[in-house]
Amino acid sequence: MEIVVKSLTELDKVAENIAEKLQGGEVLALTGTLGAGKTTFSKALLKALGVKDEVTSPTFVLMIPYEIPKKNLTLYHIDLYRIAGYKEVEALGIPDLWNKKDSIFVIEWADKIKRQLPKNTTYIHFEIENEHRRVTITK
Ligand SMILES: Nc1ncnc2c1ncn2[C@@H]1O[C@H](COP(=O)(O)OP(=O)(O)O)[C@@H](O)[C@H]1O
Ligand SMILES: [Mg+2]
Fold first, then answer.
1. Is residue 74 within 8 Å of 104, Cβ to Cβ?
2. pLDDT value of residue 93
3. Does pLDDT of 51 surpass 90?
4. Which of 6, 32, 44, 102 could form a disulfide with 126 if both were Cys (CB 3.0 to 4.6 A apart)?
């Protein structure tokens, strides 16, 4: 599914639609170049899920967990920008948690570990096009 996003308000709508469907056990793989909108989408998703804490980019800390009380879930926001490959992800214990019914993963630069991502991964690709952004969702 391809969506043309013309503003941050429209991005919030996309995030709200995705947030509504999340039940736990999902892995959302965010791809696209630097500045394409992966962190902005992650923030919009957390806002849609009712997280009021300040959401920062996990570029330096690799992973930030957020409690989602209204769904009784933990969302793990991950940024693999500084990571070389799957070994480092494994060392963090991340794959032990995915597919768990009470966790959701939102992974920026997920294409770095594409081969090791679970089968049920939803890919969300971000592109900048002239005056707007394009978001492509593939399951
Ligand atoms: N849908 C959008 N519409 C307008 N600006 C956007 C949109 N998505 C992201 N941006 C802007 O683009 C910049 C980079 O976005 P960011 O989410 O940090 O990219 P990434 O995490 O992919 O590197 C930010 O200043 C952000 O406000
Ligand atoms: Mg980012």
1. yes
2. 84
3. yes
4. 32
- Is residue 58 lining ligand 1, measured as CB closer than 6 Å? no
Tokens of 95: 């794959």
Q: Tokens in use for 125?
A: 């690709």
What pTM was estimated for this model as a whole? Answer: 0.94
Q: What share of the chain is helix, strand, coil (3-state, %, to 5)?
A: 30, 30, 35
Largest CA distance in the chain: 41
Distance 8 CA to ligand 1 centre (A): 9
Q: Which atom of ligand 1 is nearest to the CA of 42?
A: 17
Q: What was the pLDDT predicted at 132?
A: 93
> How remote is the C-alpha of 110 from its chain's centroid?
9
| C-alpha 43 chain-centroid distance | 9
Closest ligand 1 atom number to CA of residue 126: 22
Helix (H) or strand (E) holding 14: helix 8-21
**24 C-alpha vs ligand 2 centroid, how far in Å?**
23
- Residue carrying structure tokens 């060392």: 91
